[in-house]
Please model this.
Amino acid sequence: MEKEINIAAPTGADSATASPEKVIDITNLTIGFNNVPVLRDFTVQLFEKENLVILGKSGSGKSVLIKCIVRLLNPDSGTINVLGENVNELNDRDLAEMRKKIGFLFQSGALYDSMTIRENLEFPLRRIKKGLSRKQIDEKIVEALENVGLSDTLHKMPSDLSGGMRKRASLARTIVVDPMIMLYDEPTTGLDPITSDEISSLINEVQKKYKTSSIIITHDIECARATADRMIMLNEGEVYLEGTIDEFESSQDEMIQSFFKMNNVSSRSNE
Amino acid sequence: MALHVTSSDKDFRHMKAINTDIVKKTNLPKVKKQAIKLSENVIKKKQKANRFFLAVGEFYLFFWLTTKATFSRHFEFKEFLRQCFLVGNKTLPLITITGLVIGLVLTIQSRPILADFGATSLLPGMIALSIVREMGPVVTALICAGKIGSGMGAELGSMRVSEQIDAMEVSSIKPIRFLVVPRVLAATLMIPILVLYADALGILGSWAGANIKGDVTFILFFTQAFSAIGFMDFLPAVIKTFFFGAAIGFIGCFKGYTAGRGTESVGKAANESVVLASLFVIVIDLIAVQITDML
Model:
């Protein structure tokens, strides 16, 4: 059951551009595990400088989708074009080059717990941006940490940080290598409403400052409201609804209404 | 690299439940009931075989990727040194105590028997030979399998669970090159050094044991001990320790790297690392002894 509201161009895209460029183009993506389909003929595009929010219940295939984009998972069928290249046809070297252009914020943060925050940022930076001097590396690390408001945590271990700080440090590690595309896997899950709000603001700031295009996987309506230029609701591996936040909120569909209602109740109880 | 066994246990259980239901509810002839049971057993055996071959395939794929990464141009030397320090530092106190105790206990146990034959003078040589050829390498390797193997299994397993390995992959950093190769090489290099250290302490412990009921000077004891050890006793024993180290490091990393997604898989990976690494140490020792015997 696909109720698609087609929109010509993302609202967040540069208004001066007549037709925004597609940075990610996914066509008929199908993937399943143990003969159980997770995504079925899923088609979506991400445009330049756009924030696309993908909503859905747990197990609807949201995280699987972004893992397919960076080829952490291989789809059963369908094509994924990232910046004009078919991800599934890339060899190891080209895949590594493509991944350098993508920032991936994991749900758990995935900070390397044997390294300090500084080392966490330096580790990918040294390997991706080869040829940078010591001074340039230091400057980039400090700048990235300042952008997420964590400049005083340089020599701390990840275990010394709170959940929200870890997410921000992880975001700093992602943006330090200047990615063109950002993939956020449930960035506000497990955080209190205030910290969730901060993370949502950071996502917008990152998009403005680094001119990134982003896919934000979430089931947090507040985060979606704060960040989305366009939204997609996934249900049982298929696009259930596509549109802007206003279109979602004014939707008379029972499932959409109950999703928004439940989220509002949980955010009120959190407050 | 996704190294995960995908089994269809769920389907099988579902099918079995349906079959049991059919057998119970319907009045099938005995032959048909037996045929259903047989088909269930065949599917179960097939699944077991599938799992086994998938595990073997995973093991060889991991071995190939590790070997390829070991000889690649980019070597993580800093991480290798860090792992060498960790492997040595982690096990040094344990090896110190074990080495001393082995020598001491062997001497206390052997002395009365040798005294009965009036061959107490052979004690230093006999103990030194048994420590250098067998006890030192095997006991040290088994301790390292427990300490280092489980440590590597748990560390990489928790990195897998907390998506740190995935984070490396999406940052274009090859996890096998950074995580596995330095650990395997560190274990391969450090375990022989730890074995030599344990051998030396074992002989020292033996001298202490010999002095409990007798009076042997340090120089006399060591002269007698070393005069009994030949080059061909020492060399094969040292060579096999490199294989022990490689096996311990490799199995620890393999089990951790291929751990499942749940937190229980971390404990499972650590446990399986110890069991499998210990088994490999024993098997390698058996092969090494056979080869040495033929020389």
Summary: The longest strand of chain A covers residues 22-33. The longest helix of chain A spans residues 193-210. Chain A touches chain B at residues 33-35, 67, 70, 72-74, 96-97, 99-100, 102, 104, 106-108, 110-113, 123-124, 127-128, 177 (CB under 8 Å).
